[in-house]
Design a protein that fits this description.
Elements (H helix, E strand, L loop, with lengths): L2 H10 L4 H13 L17 E2 L5 E5 L7 H4 L7 H13 L19 E5 L12 H17 L5 E5 H14 L3 E3 L10 E6 L2 E8 L4 H4 L6 H15 L6
Parallel strand pairs: 2-3, 2-4, 4-7
Antiparallel strand pairs: 1-3, 5-6, 6-7
Length: about 230
Amino acid sequence: MDLNEISAAVVRCTRCPELRAYAARVARDRKRAHRDEVYWGKPVPAFGDPRARVVLVGLAPGAHGSNRTGRPFTGDASGNFLYPALYRAGFASQPDAISRDDGLVLRDCLITAAARCAPPKNKPTPGELRKCLPYLAEEFEALGRLRVAIGLGSIGFSAVLRVLDGAGFAFDPPRPRFAHGAECAATKGRRRIVVIASYHPSRQNTNTGKLTEPMFDAIFSRANAVLGRRTKP
């Protein structure tokens, strides 16, 4: 399938009825700050360039972020930290991500997630992650030019490794433990994908200084170096 077909399948997905019910309930009750808005309230598809050489894999939609806007990392604090970094690195057309129709365009980059429905307390279960993993595998297969995979947070990083392992890639050096900036290469025949780990741009990490702008910028500078891109396109 191509990315449009995968996205359509994601939005229709009913593999986790309890998550569908939770997302719909949040969309119905809404947050006071967004009580006049119409929430997306469904699984959130990937967003970005279908010819991307870089893929970012996050955790899951936020209840009042992506579950509200219908686009990854849009409308919440994590996106407010992520998209400016992508803009500085030349992967995004603008630093602001407000809604699906705000004009934001990603260049050479696709953003997706390990889980596609907003989970209670932002913690998908292992079973829910397993049910979502095939969508991520299909996206990786559809990205024929993929050269860099960035796992945002330990769950996103683990999902990247599981997908590549399941597709028959070998890791050099052996699969690293999660740490900010940890890196390995996944190879299969002539294909080589550099896998990079990053702390998730959650408020918990950014507000405490665990993840700073220079630390985050270094991740995307490394991605640009792998691609041979030194400046904004």
